[in-house]
Specification:
7% helix; 101 residues; Immunoglobulin-like; 45% strand; globular; two-stranded antiparallel ribbon; single chain; mainly beta; 6-stranded antiparallel β-sheet; 1 helix
């Protein structure tokens, strides 16, 4: 089952052995944005060695969901956006799944 993220959830980008490299908090619509320096992160490495993790108790979002556990998603490249002289890689979650606590 895939899950949507709700407002005020902390989303962490974790790479390697669970190292948090960046984080963001979702807005009222559950949307978030994480910006990374391309000199520090190679796209292929992000797609194969990193995941998005939401540890906010799911019961905070929906009382029918468990209070222990979180959400996990791999990453998916969906294209580039040219902003002036910058070429921005657009990466999205491939789908959040429940992760037992």
């Amino acid at each position: 089952m895939l899950y949507d993220i709700v407002s005020d959830a902390l989303v962490q980008l974790q790479c390697g052995a669970g190292n948090v490299v960046s984080s963001a908090t979702t807005n009222r619509s559950g949307v978030f944005s994480i910006v990374l320096d391309t000199l520090q992160f190679i796209l292929s490495s992000l797609l194969t060695n990193c995941n998005l993790v939401v540890n906010t108790p799911l019961s905070n979002c929906n009382s029918k969901l468990p209070s222990v556990g979180g959400l996990l998603s791999s990453l998916q490249f969906i294209g580039n956006t040219l902003l002036s002289l910058l070429n921005v890689a657009n990466i999205v979650p491939s789908g959040f799944q429940f992760l037992d606590g």
